[in-house]
Design a protein that fits this description.
single chain; 124 residues; mainly beta; 49% strand
Length: 124
Amino acid sequence: QVQLAESGGGLVQAGGSLRLSCAASVGTFSPYLMGWFRQAPGKERELVAAISRSGTGTKYLDSVKGRFTISRDNAKNTVYLEMSSLKPEDTAVYYCAASLQGYYYERAPRYDYWGQGTQVTVSS
């Protein structure tokens, strides 16, 4: 079964940057739509960004557009989330997820596998 392991979270000051990584333990990475989700205390989980199997198509939460960039390296079975101009409201646990049948342009594609999450804390 697919296992996802996030890394790169931490404490950063407002305006700073972080790069999250998600390594997938799987035979081949390319069949999966990949997404990054986040969940803040007392709030619902929300999709931050998604990237198509080829890496050509992307989707972002409106509040992170222009600040976050999702990318993937299928040869390394890894997906990244580069975050810049971080704000306190970006504070949350960030989760990596993989979908076998979903597409990035769908409103709510089904994600089949999830990582344990990595904490991102932005201080002001």
